[in-house]
Amino acid sequence: MAWQAGNWRITRQFWVVAHRWAGLTLALFLAVAGFTGIFLAWIDELEVAAAPQLQLAPPPHAGARPLSTLALREQVLARYPLARIDYLPLHIEEGRSLRLYLTWPAGIQAPDWDDLFLDPYTGKELGRRQWGNIGQGLKNLMPFVYRLHYSLALGPYGTLAFGLAALVWVVDCFVGFYLTLPAGPLRWATWRKAWTLRPRKSGQKLWSYKLNFDLHRAGGLWVWPLLLVFALSSLSFNLPQVYAPILQALGGRDHRALYEGATLPSPRNLPKLAFEPALKRGKWLAEAETAKAGLAMADWGESYLWYIPTTGTYLYGFTSSADISKHGEGSFVAFDSDTGRLRAVQFPTGQTGANTFTTWIEAIHTAHVGGMLWRMGTSLLGAIVTMLCITGVVIWMKKRSARLSRLTKG
């Protein structure tokens, strides 16, 4: 089977080699992403298990109500006047602490922590950590696992490398699928062999190269649609430089460009709208824009207020009837931090098909839909991705050994 255009003729063997080298290039990235993904589907529970002293804050008595997160933020800033808190969650789950992320201005000796955990009923500090620093012990286990998952814990360069790996993965999904097809005419009687494990012969070892090959081919086929979804969503998360233009070409809008595109000459660190009036403005705009879109506000999800000094923009995130999950970047309005003028509004579904598609693949990737059953499915898929990487490397090693043996004999 070959593909030909003009004078170029690409044979099946070309795609075999391309798949082999793409797989070897991706093996480390996908093995790490797959293995860590097994646990990240349960990140909330594992955060509590690893650091209950930080994560839990039971109410002092039945019916107790937490303080407003706005008031708690002001308490912390009064305690640490040099710090900034630009992201404020507005919703606290019962029995959980409030986590605030602090940043410190350049030129001062910053402390060895940036995550602060508070008892939302009293404002008492429960503990601190530097997010992702595994050297601080178990309290940073899950943040470190998360850093491994998207960047190998190597910072921006690791994130970029994972993005490039995601791009290769998207292409290789189609190449791998093509290679499962029979070399001759496509008939189900022939192709169905690729979907199954060949029976083990009497006396054959429990683990053999044949079983390894079948696991790699059949395992990839059975979960192929999900592999493509995870590859595309990884591209969206890690390489927006590529994903955003594709999204826009399909009629969608990159939500990051809505609030990151107009960078100011210098950060607006002291906006005219402080957090409290900005919160009121955000709520008013959210209600107005939701009504204009024919949607309804919802109170079952998360909400937040986020200030971005580099663009002088506030984001008020909320949940609407267009959201498919209570987590993540759902509905939001973006407005100017001096004038309160609306800059952008985003609903995760319903505005464009491309944005709705992106919302769904990202929610599937992060296990924010489907409840407990899909979280279990996400963990299983992480294990399958890890298995595909291992079996792929074994296939390469076996074929490389055979080629070297032939060269030696020749």
Structural features, described:
This is PepSY domain-containing protein. Pfam families: PepSY_TM. The chain crosses the membrane at residues 21-43, 160-181, 218-237, 379-397. This protein has 410 residues and is α+β, with helices and mostly antiparallel strands. It has three domains: 11-22 and 153-232 and 373-409, no CATH class; 43-150, no CATH class; 254-351, Nuclear Transport Factor 2, Chain: A (Roll), CATH 3.10.450. 50% of the residues lie in helices and 12% in strands. The protein contains 14 helices and eleven strands. Helix 6 (156-180) runs antiparallel to helix 9 (224-238).
Write the layout of secondary structure elements.
Elements: E1 2-5, E2 8-11, H1 12-40, H2 43-50, H3 52-55, H4 69-79, E3 87-89, E4 98-101, E5 115-118, E6 125-129, H5 141-151, H6 156-180, H7 188-191, H8 209-222, H9 224-238, H10 240-249, H11 255-260, H12 275-292, E7 297-298, E8 304-308, E9 313-320, E10 331-336, E11 342-346, H13 353-365, H14 371-409
Antiparallel strand pairs: 1-2, 3-8, 4-5, 5-6, 7-9, 8-9, 9-10, 10-11
Mean pLDDT, all residues: 91
Structural class: alpha+beta
Radius of gyration: 25 Å
Please give the alpha-carbon distance between the first and last residues.
Answer: 29 Å
- The domain tally reads 3
Q: Report helical residue fraction.
A: 40-55%
The total beta strand count reads 11
Please report the number of helical segments: 14
Shape: elongated
Main beta sheet, described? 6 strands, antiparallel
How are helices and strands ordered from N to C? EEHHHHEEEEHHHHHHHHEEEEEHH
